[in-house]
Amino acid sequence: DQQVKQNSPSLSVQEGRISILNCDYTNSMFDYFLWYKKYPAEGPTFLISISSIKDKNEDGRFTVFLNKSAKHLSLHIVPSQPGDSAVYFCAASPGGTSYGKLTFGQGTILTVHP
Amino acid sequence: DTAVSQTPKYLVTQMGNDKSIKCEQNLGHDTMYWYKQDSKKFLKIMFSYNNKELIINETVPNRFSPKSPDKAHLNLHINSLELGDSAVYFCASSRGVGSPLHFGNGTRLTVT
């Protein structure tokens, strides 16, 4: 039972354009949502997060949107840069003492072309 | 300065052996975690410790035993290794609820 899904295995974008990565979840107990970026042979690197009480969080070129009623979140990267090419993982966590018990999606490979 | 460091990076061993993976964080975080990346590339939590106390313990075989000598270290000991234990193991730490988890670069364990 996959509680966090990233339905696009890959995304290809031109440099300077917007990249939109999507994520759907099923568990209403999730309180926090995080996006990670991963390069081969490295650990996931934290990008941005959002709590369930918000619907938008912005940090530089990265913005995360949360639609609780649709159980959907998205990561917008604008403008996209070639260095953004990596695997992007969406993750969700309950709150309280179970915080940190992240459920990850299967990842989306983003390729930004010069 | 590496924030979350794991050793070794690669570990190749035979079935039946006992091995340990070490993890240290210099971020001053109270909570540390072990995650396993399976063959389908999913990252799944195994354990979580807060100030040396076990908080999260997923359905992991009891051949896996985490040990936290202090809040900056969380080691993973695996007894009687099996072929199915082959995976990449990631250590992580966080400051607390709502704070992001910071991951190490992983230990690729291969059991032959």
Ranges of chain B where pLDDT stays below 50 over 5 or more residues in a row are: none
Count of beta strands of chain B: 11
What composes the largest sheet of chain A?
A: 6 strands, mixed
Largest sheet of chain B: 7 strands, mixed
Which bin fits the share of residues in helices of chain A?
Answer: under 10%
Report the mean per-residue pLDDT of chain B as an integer.
93
Share of β-strand residues of chain B:
over 45%
The coarse silhouette of chain A is globular
Q: Between the first and last Cα atoms of chain B, what is the distance in angstroms?
A: 34 Å
Structural class based on helices, strands and sheet pairing of chain A: mainly beta
Strand portion of chain A: over 45%
**Which geometry of chain B do the CA atoms define?**
globular
Q: Can you count the helices of chain B?
A: 0
Contiguous helical run count of chain A: 0
Give me the strand/helix succession of chain B.
Answer: EEEEEEEEEEE
As residue ranges, the low-confidence spans of chain A are: none
Helical content of chain B (DSSP H or I, runs of 4+): under 10%
Radius of gyration of chain B: 13 Å
Please give the number of β-strands of chain A. Answer: 11
Mean pLDDT of chain A: 95
